[in-house]
Amino acid sequence: MKIGIIDTGVDHTHKRFNHHHITGITLLENLAKEISTIENSFNDIKGHGTGILSIIVQHAPFIETEVVKLEAENGRISEALLVRAINYLLDDHDIEVINISMGIRTNDPSQELRLACDRASKQGVILVAAVHYLHDKLCYPAHFTSVLGIGQGIVESKYKFRKLENRSANILAKGGFQRVAYPGNTFRFSVGTSLATAHFSGIICKAKLENQWDNIESLNKWILKNSDPSIISLTKHDSKINELNHTNTPALSPGELYNSLRPAPCISKVAIYPFEEKEMQSILEFPQLFPYQLTAAIGNLRSIKLDKSISLLEKQGIPYSFGELEEQTYNTFDTIIIGYFLDKLLDQNSYQGYSLIKECVKRNKNFIVWDRSVNDLIHSVISDSTTTYTGKVFLTAFAKQDKENLYASMEHTVLKSPSICVVGTNKKQGKFTTQLILKELLKENGYKVSHLATEPQGIVLGADITFPIGHNGTVDVDIMEWNKSLRFLTQMIEEHTKPDIIITGSQGSILPKHPMNDSNAAEMLSYVKAFYPDALVCTISPNDSLDYIRRTIDVIKAFVNCEVLFYVLTPFEYTIHFNNQVRVSYRQLDEMEYQDKLNYFNENLDSPTFNIKNKDNSQKIIDIIINKFSKG
Fold it and tell me: Is 194 annotated as catalytic?
């Protein structure tokens, strides 16, 4: 029997694959979207595909394997690349199962991808693909009816699985924490739907070798017969698929729209958790913008780099603690802001956050959260509660319903307020901090400023609306609709707040410094293009080349007809490290090094460069902005 695997390649020299026959190719997509084939080459640098095959051969050690390694110069696997891989394997008529432990997150898959999957079904080839790790996100090809979509279940034995009907996944299999092969004859621990997919592919290959099925119809019967109904999914891949609501959306006034995208007005006294996160540090660094009374700060039991946060807390006289709270602390706040505590996957911190949420739900505290996974956890706790929860839960997001409300309520009009967008050449440059400082400077000079933030914490730091596109982004609108959505959002802000100027900012970099570290550059450019500002402020890093800075601005200007008012120099110098994975580290320049770089860029760039935090520059910055938008 022969199986096809579409992944990051395989280390065929690994001891796990002794006596196992593996062949393969690489499909490479260049920056011009041209796809080329590299014969007999499928070495696994990232390690994912090696782990996937090591799971499959646990079940079926004697199958042949044809590997298709997918590689893209821009770092993103496209539908076209996946389609080419599926069709390549379908041309090999010995292949009976194709394992795809990956997928394309989209609400509108291409016709070509659908046809490739339909072709597999007609040929009798079984496609087994991973659903998204977030159960409510569509992911293809797993969600095509011609494909078996695999979710993550709590499974007693790796040989067990569960068949589902009308759920987020077709099958639940073992996707929990487990040891898998890794390139270089080593092993690593991993978790996720991609592993569950490999287990199920291995299970059905073993059954095929034992003559328990011989076509799609008999396989479906075998799956039903051997399904274990006791298996559940903590990741909610056994959730029912909700039908779309096709009722007409009523029109709302700009004020109603504005308020629907903001936290409830009942919030007064607030706690934050975990206080050491950078998003929480923004709250501590700009207390004058925080509209609530900060009464408590809670840190993770296991955390590092606390000195700066603790110093800010002590300076402002805000009590802080770690671990379980005393009852008197709960009495000091009505609302808790919760960050990304689930990111680190440390059991101690995760359990601490979970326990804190349960105690806050029990006491009917309001929640403001950045992360959809945390939001889902809160609602799960509320559902399991034996009492009625009367608090409010606000997720900083721009959801499909928000888009529908906008589209139903707004009509295109000419924007009157000028706008500035803060862009950058890299991460960790203080783009959000720059926006907050600009907003403060303009307000101090008598201007009314509105702020459309792409950072979630913007909503509690004076931003009118958030459009969170950065880390764990919560914008549910297809990128093709950003132009219209952002135009209407800006228009709504203008009609409701009547500002003198509107400020926003992108995230990450506009151009990739390295194909494997592009910070979703295309998405960030799409944001700037969709917002279409009247002027730019560009943050730069000390070791950016002049050519790289100019190319960044040239790319933006190709889509947006505007100029750079000035540059803002971050004190953090970056270094890119090339190992198994591309990693970036940062070093803060000393005062003399920083001043030398500031002088260098002022001498060589066509607009001035500032230290945005130096108040001696405030009047110069204000003068530049006023001169740009002066009608005189």
Answer: yes
Q: Are 157 and 176 in contact (CB under 8 A)?
A: no
Q: Which of 12, 20, 48, 143 is catalytic?
A: 48
Other Cβ atoms less than 10 A from the Cβ of 484: the count is 16
Cα angle for residues 86, 89, 93 (degrees, 5° grid): 135
- How many percent of the chain have pLDDT more than 90? 70
Among 101, 194, 419, 450, the one annotated catalytic:
194
Per-residue confidence (pLDDT) for residue 108, from 0 to 100: 82
Catalytic residue among 7, 371, 376, 464: 7
**Cα–Cα dist 155/159, whole Å:** 9
pTM of the model: 0.61
* φ/ψ bin of 104: left (φ > 0), alpha (ψ from -120 to 50), beta (otherwise): beta
- Helix runs in 6-110, H state only: 48-59, 79-90
CA separation for the pair 464, 451 (Å, rounded): 5
- Helix then strand count (H, E) for the chain reads 18, 28
- Set out the domains of the chain in order of their start, with CATH numbers: 2-226 (3.40.50.200), 262-397 (3.40.50.720), 401-629 (3.40.50.300)
Ordered strands of the 64-72 beta sheet: 35-39, 22-29, 64-72, 2-7, 95-100, 126-130, 148-153, 171-174, 162-163
Copy the structure tokens of residue 626. Answer: 């006023």
| Cα–Cα distance, 283 to 314 (Å, whole number) | 14
**pLDDT recorded at residue 579:** 67
CB of 575 closer than 8 Å to CB of 584: yes
**Burial of 112 per CB tally in 10 Å (0-12, 13-18, 19+):** middle
48 in active site: yes
Long-range contacts of 288-292 (CB under 8 A, 24+ apart): 288/440, 289/436, 289/439, 289/440, 289/461, 289/462, 290/460, 290/461, 291/460, 291/462, 292/267, 292/268, 292/335, 292/460
What is the rounded average pLDDT of the residues 138-147? 92
